[in-house]
C-alpha cells in the first residue's frame, strides 16, 4: 500500500465535490478554513453551485473529470473532498484508475466518499484518509481539529483514542491485525455485486452511518453478513450511528441488539462507540493502513 506524502504549509490542495452540490454560502467559509490550516485551496468546477445537476454537484462526467485532473496535475499536492452527500459511486466507471495509480497523492473525505476510498485502496493501492471535510466541519472542536491535522500532515500514527468522556465498548473480545477498510455502511452495502465491492479478507472493517432507520441498518448489515464480509474480516470497528432512530420505537430492535444478532456470531474481535463518523467529535482513520486491535481492552494501534 502506497502511503502518500503528507501535506505541508503552502501545499496546493484540490477541492472537489464528487457527490452532492455545495450550497453557495458554504464555499467561502470552506476556503477560509482550508487557508487557516496553512494550505492553498484550488477550487474545481464541481464545487460551484452553478454547475449542479439536480442533487448532484455537477454532471457525472464533470465530477469524474475533476478527480482525474486533480490526480494528474503535478502542481496539486493533495485532494480533499469538500463535502459528501450522494453520488460518488456514480462516477466510479468514469475514473481513470491508471492515471490515478501513476499519480498517487493525499486524498481525504468521508460519508459518500467511502465509495472512492474503497476504489483507491483496492485498485490503486493508495492509503486514503477518512477525515472531516471543509464545508461540513468548518469550525471543528479541538479534538476533531487535532485528528484532522494528524491526517493532513503525516502524524496519524500510534493509538486511536476516544475523548475522555466517550469510552469505547467491547462487543466481541479478542485480538486482530489487518489493514483498515470500510466507512459508511450504506455505501459499502451498495458496493456489493459491483467491480468495486468491498474486500474485507483479513482486514479490520470500520462501519458508521447517519440518518438510517434501525431496520435499514439491520438490512444493510444483513447484506454484508450474507456476502461473507464479517466472516472474512479479521476484526470490526463500529463508529457513530448518528440519528439512526427506529421507525416504530415500540416494536424495534436496539442497535446494540442488531449488532449482537448479526455481527457477534462471526466471532471477530469487535469494538463499539469509536468516535468516528458523522459526529461533531470525530477522529481520523488512515484507510489502507495496518493496525492492531485488542477488543477486550478497546485498544487500536496504527
Descriptive notes:
- The protein is α/β, with parallel strands linked by helices and 302 residues long.
- It has two domains: 12-153, Rossmann fold, CATH 3.40.50; 169-301, LD-carboxypeptidase A C-terminal domain-like (Glucose Oxidase, domain 1), CATH 3.50.30.60.
- Helix content is 28%, strand content 21%.
- It contains nine helices and 13 strands.
- It has helices spanning 24-36, 60-72, 97-102, 114-123, 142-153, 185-191, 214-226, 229-232, 255-262, and strands at 12-16, 40-43, 78-81, 106-109, 128-130, 169-172, 175-184, 204-210, 235-242, 270-272, 285-287, 290-294, 299-301.
- The strands form two sheets. Strands 6-10-9-8-7-12-13 form a seven-stranded mixed beta sheet. A six-stranded mixed beta sheet has the order 2-1-3-4-5-11, sandwiched between helices.
- Strand 3, helix 3 (97-102) and strand 4 form a beta-alpha-beta unit.
- Helix 6 packs across helix 7.
- The longest helix is centred in the first third of the chain and has 13 residues, at 24-36.
- The radius of gyration is 18 Å and the shape is globular.
- The two termini are 14 Å apart.
Q: What pattern of helices and strands is seen along the backbone?
A: EHEHEHEHEHEEHEHHEHEEEE
Give the CATH superfamily of the largest domain: Murein tetrapeptidase LD-carboxypeptidase, N-terminal domain
**What gross morphology would you assign?**
globular
Q: Count the strands?
A: 13
Could you tell me the CATH topology label of the largest domain: Rossmann fold
CATH top level of the largest domain? Alpha Beta
Secondary-structure-based class equals alpha/beta
Rounded radius of gyration (Å): 18 Å
Q: DSSP helix count? A: 9
Distance between the termini: 14 Å
The main β sheet shows up as: 7 strands, mixed
Amino acid at each position: 500500500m502506497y502511503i502518500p506524502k503528507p501535506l505541508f504549509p503552502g501545499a496546493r490542495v484540490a477541492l472537489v465535490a464528487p457527490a452532492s452540490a455545495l450550497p453557495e454560502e458554504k464555499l467561502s467559509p470552506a476556503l477560509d478554513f482550508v487557508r487557516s490550516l496553512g494550505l492553498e485551496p484550488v477550487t474545481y468546477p464541481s464545487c460551484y453551485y452553478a454547475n449542479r445537476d439536480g442533487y448532484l454537484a455537477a454532471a457525472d462526467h464533470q465530477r469524474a473529470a475533476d478527480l482525474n485532473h486533480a490526480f494528474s496535475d503535478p502542481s496539486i499536492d493533495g485532494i480533499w473532498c469538500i463535502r459528501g452527500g450522494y453520488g460518488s459511486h456514480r462516477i466510479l466507471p468514469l475514473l481513470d484508475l491508471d492515471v490515478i495509480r501513476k499519480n498517487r497523492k493525499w486524498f481525504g473525505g468521508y460519508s459518500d466518499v467511502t465509495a472512492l476510498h474503497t476504489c483507491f485502496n483496492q485498485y490503486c493501492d493508495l492509503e486514503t484518509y477518512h477525515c472531516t471535510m471543509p464545508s461540513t466541519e468548518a469550525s471543528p472542536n479541538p479534538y476533531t481539529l487535532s485528528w484532522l491535522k494528524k491526517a493532513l500532515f503525516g502524524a496519524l500514527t500510534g493509538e486511536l483514542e476516544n475523548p475522555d468522556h466517550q469510552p469505547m465498548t467491547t462487543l466481541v473480545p479478542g485480538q486482530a491485525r489487518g489493514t483498515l477498510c470500510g466507512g459508511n455502511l450504506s455505501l459499502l452495502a451498495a458496493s456489493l455485486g459491483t467491480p468495486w465491492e468491498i474486500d474485507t479478507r483479513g482486514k479490520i472493517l470500520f462501519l458508521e452511518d447517519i440518518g438510517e432507520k434501525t431496520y435499514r441498518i439491520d438490512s444493510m448489515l444483513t447484506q454484508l453478513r450474507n456476502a461473507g464480509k464479517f466472516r472474512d474480516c479479521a476484526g470490526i470497528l463500529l463508529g457513530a450511528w448518528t440519528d439512526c432512530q427506529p421507525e416504530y420505537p415500540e416494536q424495534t430492535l436496539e442497535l446494540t441488539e442488531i449488532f449482537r444478532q448479526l455481527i457477534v456470531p462471526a466471532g471477530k474481535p469487535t469494538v463499539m462507540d469509536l468516535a468516528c463518523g458523522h459526529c461533531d467529535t470525530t477522529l481520523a482513520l488512515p484507510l489502507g493502513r495496518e493496525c492492531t486491535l485488542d477488543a477486550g481492552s478497546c485498544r487500536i494501534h496504527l
